[in-house]
């Protein structure tokens, strides 16, 4: 057993124990190491000023793959077995990398406070590409805010970069020697204690279940994109934390003809990438449903949030406005829960018992999320919706999923889930019953919207008033009809 986390920072090995292991990475960089290039502004994952690159072994285990992450909501101990690159380490001493050079040439900085975060986030985009389109730049920088420039010079800088001339993190810091050290050091489980607090990082599921059973309540710290914010803003200091990152294979995402299967530590970015790389038939309903999910993931938080946050964390956090839940509800997803007495599988539709009340025993871990996919040849339509005050990097006011199975224009089965309208995501059995067996008409979807409105009892909060949410619940059926089902649309597309 180890009591020191091992991580590389700009290629230099660090072994961290005690209080520092519980510090945020941004504080550790600035106040322990004196590397003040990484800035701290919001401390809740919203502004991107604290962005660093975190390298983890790829699927071959032979290379480190670097991704942008918010260092203000990661604690140092959770980064055991990684390579971190900060703005100071993006180029050899006294040199600028191609992104930094372009930011200078295009006047991408004014006060400069956001600049290191932009530079690191932009450099992350060039880890895998030589050139970016304007849309890729805009999408890739949604996690970074600037109050001075109006963004145009920053976007121009990104478009000016020729990534083929850039020293990338994986070139600057060769993976092999770091992976050798990580492999030798991190094969044992990690336990760091400081005062009342303990952070564990087991390397097998048996160890993880043992830790969770012996010393309840052990809080699983996965991406930290929910827990990190609660720690910074609400002073959350759970005495017992456990990271599952050391357990090999638990991050696997598999897609076959029948099932999407997502491991308990798979990040949202890994899920999005797996869907985009999946070579299914573009004419199959499974392909359409997965593409719909990828679109929702594309507007989930920011790249930094998706690179750290996990699907299991989104489910276990239990928020009624979690973006992935309506999809999982209408797809009848199942959760594999592993605990002291073995593994059981629970339908997600039965998992939530009330606001943040889960059918999850204190010793259980979500080890896999199983999403059955529709068979090829079936006729299906799925619409996923997220309504938020801003398009990018915003929490939803309202979410919805509408799934129809049809024969010709008759609905043979309907599934509807709405989020942000009650303490949990809600299935709408009465609306589903209204739709089932009916021929698709505009009037039917008008009536479905009116019924949904009568069936829910939303509250007013900072993200929207009760009346706004009632109206959204009604309108979403109209939108679904016009965008997905209206006969004139099919004729236009034919
Ligand atoms: C700036 C910002 C933007 C965000 N945007 C969105 C958004 O657009 N849409 C959205 O839905 N959410 C959003 N979130 C919330 C958050 O990113 C997601 O809920 C994310 O999926 C959480 O995953 P995580 O791995 O980071 O969870 P963590 O913070 O590590 O954990 C969250 C909860 O899940 C539990 N947990 C984690 N893994 C497991 C497991 N395997 N088994 C059992 N319990 C587990 C933890 O103990 C904890 O209770 C945002 C957060 C931030 C900070
Ligand atoms: S300081 Fe704003 S995202 Fe970290
Ligand atoms: S240059 Fe001032 S915040 Fe971006």
Top keywords for this entry?
DNA polymerase, domain 1, binds flavin-adenine dinucleotide, Uridine Diphospho-n-acetylenolpyruvylglucosamine Reductase, domain 3, Ubiquitin-like (UB roll), 494 residues, 18 helices, alpha+beta, binds FE2/S2 (inorganic) cluster, five-stranded antiparallel β-sheet
What are the SSEs and their pairings?
Blueprint: E1 5-9, E2 12-16, H1 25-32, E3 51-57, E4 64-70, E5 82-85, H2 98-105, H3 115-125, H4 134-140, H5 152-160, H6 169-172, H7 175-185, E6 190-194, E7 197-201, H8 205-214, E8 219-220, H9 227-234, E9 240-242, E10 253-255, E11 259-263, H10 268-277, H11 285-298, H12 303-308, H13 311-317, H14 325-330, E12 334-339, E13 342-347, E14 352-354, E15 357-358, E16 365-372, E17 380-387, E18 398-407, E19 410-419, E20 426-427, H15 429-435, H16 442-455, H17 466-485, H18 487-493
Parallel strand pairs: 1-5, 7-9, 8-9
Antiparallel strand pairs: 1-2, 3-4, 3-5, 6-7, 10-11, 11-16, 12-13, 12-16, 14-15, 17-18, 18-19, 19-20
Flavin-adenine dinucleotide (FAD) is lined by residues 44-46, 219-227, 229, 264, 300-301, 305, 308-310, 312-314, 316-317, 322-323, 365-366, 395.
